[in-house]
Design goal:
Largest sheet: 4 strands, parallel
Number of strands: 4
Oligomer: single chain
CATH class of the largest domain: Alpha Beta
Distance between the termini: 48 Å
Radius of gyration: 18 Å
CATH architecture of the largest domain: 3-Layer(aba) Sandwich
Strand order of the largest sheet: 3-2-1-4
Helix content: 40-55%
Shape: globular
Order of helices and strands: HEHEHEHHEHHHHHHH
CATH superfamily of the largest domain: HUPs
Length: 247
């Protein structure tokens, strides 16, 4: 069975197990959410709702999310979170851009669950294995979901799957961004490309003693390896169950 078929079947099984009616997800115009939306459509048919939730977002991202939805027949709802976000920031003391960016992600999570609760759907996450392993996600934001269909696929594998599914090439090749602030990109924030990150993560998982090969020299990039290991260690709390004080 092809990977796309396995994931679509898995989504359908999770919905049936939960006794839910369908699934809801945020559609950002990015590759991950586009792939998840199409796989969900194949898995549960018309019982998919895509939420387009701009919050000081690039107009092109909103447009591309709509293009994917139209091409694959996915129902959408448009919820502009910009006014809510701005009003909340006015009520809060000044913070840095990371705090503000994470607030955006958490507003989207709350909106997804509002719809999910209202129509008895499950919330689908769009995070991939690369992001999960290094903790590149907002706790109780894009990390607050009911299922992660791409959770065992590295970013480079998601790109391959996107081409198989017929996702717009312009979505596949554009720099990945969570849209947390203007000009923000995933690779810029992490300080490493997804290709290099995925190579290191695969080597770590396989127990390879010499990981993180440099493209230019073919030698071990110990600096990149150390950065990835540090990211994994610092974000362990995002992957672990909530600690309980056992008495």
């Amino acid at each position: 069975m092809k990977t796309s078929e396995r994931i679509s079947s898995w989504i359908r099984e999770r919905v049936e197990e939960a006794g839910a009616r369908g699934v809801v997800l945020g559609m950002s115009g990015g590759i991950d959410s586009s792939v998840v939306a199409v796989l969900a459509k194949r898995g549960v048919g018309d019982k998919v709702l895509g939420l387009i939730m701009p919050c000081h977002s690039e107009p092109s991202d909103v447009e591309q999310a709509g293009q994917v939805a139209a091409e694959f027949g996915i129902e959408t709802e448009y919820v502009d979170l910009t006014p809510v976000f701005d009003r909340l920031l006015e009520a809060l003391p000044p913070g840095d851009r990371v705090a503000a960016g994470n607030l955006k992600a958490r507003l989207r999570m709350a909106t997804l669950y509002y719809f999910a609760n209202s129509i008895h759907y499950l919330v689908m996450g769009t995070g991939n294995k690369s992001e999960i392993m290094v903790g590149y996600m907002t706790k109780y934001g894009d990390g607050g979901v009911d299922m992660l269909p791409l959770g065992d696929l590295l970013k480079t594998q998601v790109r391959e799957l996107a081409r198989e599914l017929g996702i717009l090439e312009e979505i596949i090749v554009k720099p990945p961004s969570a849209g947390l602030w203007k000009g923000q990109t995933d690779e810029g924030e992490m300080g490493i490309s997804y290709e290099e990150l995925d190579n290191i993560l695969m080597a770590i998982e396989s127990g390879d003693a010499c990981t993180g090969l440099s493209r230019s020299t073919g030698e071990c990039n110990q600096e990149a390896l150390a950065r990835v290991r540090a990211m994994m260690a610092a974000s362990q709390h995002k992957r672990a169950p909530i600690p309980i004080c056992e008495l």
